[in-house]
Model the fold of this input.
Amino acid sequence: MEAAIINFISFTFFLSFFFLVHTQWKKKAKSSGKLPPGPWKLPIIGNLLHLSGSLPAHRLLSDLAKRYGSSSGLMHLQIGEIPAVIVSSREMAKEFLRTHDLAFASRPELTATKVLFYNCWEVAFSPYGDLWRQMRKICVTELLNAKIVRSFSSIRNDEIHRLLAHIRSSLGRPLNMSQRIALFMSSLTCRSALGRVFTGREELVELLEEMSSLVGSFEFADVFPSWKLLHSVCGNKNRMLKIHRKVDPIIENIIKEHEKKLESGELGGDDEGEDIIGVLVKLERNGGHQLPITHEVIKGVFLDIFAAGTETSSTTIVWALSEMMKNPRVFSKAQAEVREAFRGKEKLEEEDMEELLYLKSVVKETLRCHPPVPLLIPRECREETVVCGYTIPVKARVLVNVFAIGRDPRYWEDPESFIPERFENSSIDFMGNNFEYLPFGSGRRICPGLAFGFTNSLSPLAHLLYHFDWMLPPGITVDTFDMTETAGISVGRKTDLVLIPATPIK
Done:
């Protein structure tokens, strides 16, 4: 009996092998034009072996591009059945994100984003089309307009004071700053999006870490989409569904509470300071859009805002603190600037942050060395396109390695060193027009909340430097301080940042 089962399994895998080889041959026969160069490939799996190893994806792809890519910064990989193009230069980034932006403005359909982000009915992972255009417009004009963003300053100040109070209660003791900053950012984002901190916030922050890891991980169904028989046994879909079942009731309760407030008149009309979910619930009720705004759409947009506002911003703050602890000269210079600018003031006002030119440079340099999403969110080719003589197949996935571009010696002097001074008297910014520096992307899919995110990083850092001195835990020196990265679509520290706050200034 056992021998029969083994024979059946062997025969099944033989048929699978034959089917996949045949599929690959057919796809190759249909392709036309010259593909970008890349490493050698194996039948069926293509370049999957090249993508194995312990390095995070952005570093691994950077190394592969140096060895096998074109001198212009383009590399082709065959990832199972899926063609992929890796962009690793300023010049190619401009081609894909500006010159041919429309051809590469869509997103691939991935299992993780479909399951976790409500069938991609939101902004970040939505394919290019009417829904994406509508929701992008709403985000820019209704959710992140000047009036609403302006109202967030009081919330930010309040949450910063809560953060400082907690740190004062921990003076002289090791404090997990990774956890503390994540909670601070999640609370700030909650109050901006919902008007208050909701029940289940801490659980949702933890789930977001798992979601980030899953979105950035290998998924069998995404690499071999035609071999559906194995999708249920080879992959993380059950884990994704489990996370989704935990996340969904939390967000559903938030929407129901806002609906009750709308019915009772508590949401009001156009009051300044109205929270983001309140705006979306009213838009859902009022209608009048080309495509209806549903609960699923609101949930997806909320996850976008919560993930971007919590994980990417907290990651930037933690990396900035880490780099300053690793580089005492930078720390001392930034702290001296903050303390001089606010000497004699009882509290730091947001308008005064404009004076902190060096600290701004610290945050910009952090975004160069540690872009929150180092490969950006993958794009998908909408139609066969020729870029600089290379043919990019339809449905090819495009990864722009902004980490590699940000550390390229062709554009940056001493790129591996943390030198905020490189941004002093420089016109380079993060608005998507300088293609050697794209921490938030560029083109149609640029992050719509980039300026808000930058402010959310700058202001807390200024307060942390102003009110406290900081030390590494006993036994850890600048030379032994761990700066290892974790894997995922958003790349943070592998180990939590633990620091000791010292007596604040009087």
About this structure: The longest helix spans residues 295-326. The two ends are 81 Å apart (CA to CA).
